[in-house]
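User: Predict the complex with adenosine-5'-diphosphate.
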Amino acid sequence: MKFPGQRKSKHYFPVKARDPLLEQLTHNPKPKSTYVCGIDQTLVDIEAKVADELLVRYGLPTGNSTLIDDDKAHALYIELKQNDLISDEFAGGTIGNTVHNYSVLADDKSVLFGVMSKHIEVGSYAYRYLCNTSSKVDLNYLQPVDGPIGRCFTLISDCGERTFAISKGAMDKLTPAHINERVIENSSALVLTAYLMRASGEDQITQAAMKAIELAKAAQVPVVLTLGTRFLIEEDPKWWQDFIREHVTILAMNEDEGEALTGESDPLLASEAALELCDMVLTTAGPLGLYTAGYTEESEKRETSHTLLPGAIPDFNRFEFSRPKLKRDCQTPIKVYAHISPYMGGPERIRNTNGAGDGALAALLHDLSANTFHKANVPGSSKHIRDGLCYSSFSQICKYANRVAYQVLAQHSPRLSRGLPEREDSLEEAYWER
Ligand SMILES: Nc1ncnc2c1ncn2[C@@H]1O[C@H](COP(=O)(O)OP(=O)(O)O)[C@@H](O)[C@H]1O
Ligand SMILES: Nc1nc2c(ncn2[C@@H]2O[C@H](COP(=O)(O)O)[C@@H](O)[C@H]2O)c(=O)[nH]1
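Assistant: Here is the predicted structure with adenosine-5'-diphosphate placed in the model:
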């Protein structure tokens, strides 16, 4: 497990031989390992730059992720191919991307539940998916299926907005029987997407996800949900509110999804409203940067040394140096918020924003599982006298998530090809001393 993000003071984390806390580890030379697990629809992204006219012709609302039938998928693929519009084909899926990025950042294990074609030919989509997934993602629990994995036509408009057309193949065929109880119960977090709830007919991935959620809740494993697209939430915001209230610990959304869920267009107010449903929220807001929001115990709050920020909640970042806690672990819970503008103002050129939100969520997951890792290996640390949900403060998580989102944007693909640069030994320096 790597340290989550980069900072000068690493005194709490067992990363260096001279760290005094490491003494406790020497009795236990093999550190206890931690991992996160996720469930996804196994998808390959087929990326193409297209005119808005094509989206209209195929009935694809801009920014949405629409399921299309085989005939439409065939026609679309032929049109893209004949006009030489396809720029890339790589592994995708919002949770596949997130666990891959988690494993790259943490240099540690994650587990992915989903399906995989039984018979794989070299060069096929299934083959590409496996080749483009970090070797630290454990794929041994994938359910073998007859037929192809899904295809996600990722259509990029002139403005950089991405619109998805999903040809589902066998991606929704995961069954509850292929959810491994022990793996879920021993994980640091279970990560899901709202897309899992839209399976229909005989497809059972929704039931599989529900089984995993129940197992996670019973074992007190945090359930993390990312909302996917505002169109899905808009269909029935009340249903999603109830779902989140009942099942979700940490919610990740962008500002549009936040508005669809809460009715608040201001991402800060949307985050505040979402905190009535769950314990922690990550709200990304494109060029406005991102917010973290959550709870801490009144007596443990820590005041920021940064400038207090104006907004719909004045001075909302006052206690951003606090660590997130589960609401139920606070005697007197207070809401805490932090915000950060895009790292370095964003890359000079953004070809598309595909996967930037997934990148930010992977950073948050890394911080969360680093906390579990540290607690398992250095239980006597003063860090764990009070139960925290994450290793770092709201403010640090913002910085780290933002830095990772930048990396995804800069490399023009949703899956990190490598971790953050080692030379960047202090996030503070990277931020403020360009
Ligand atoms: N146009 C942009 N300029 C600078 N940074 C951006 C831009 N778009 C996204 N980002 C960065 O990527 C993060 C996630 O982007 P966003 O588009 O909100 O996520 P999603 O992919 O979930 O819609 C933002 O919080 C920000 O840090
Ligand atoms: N599991 C699913 N993933 C989907 C679906 N539609 C799109 N996607 C994936 O999202 C990422 C990009 O996410 P972003 O919102 O952060 O830009 C991309 O790689 C797609 O594969 C879906 O229906 N199910």
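The chain has one domain: 34-40+94-147+170-433.
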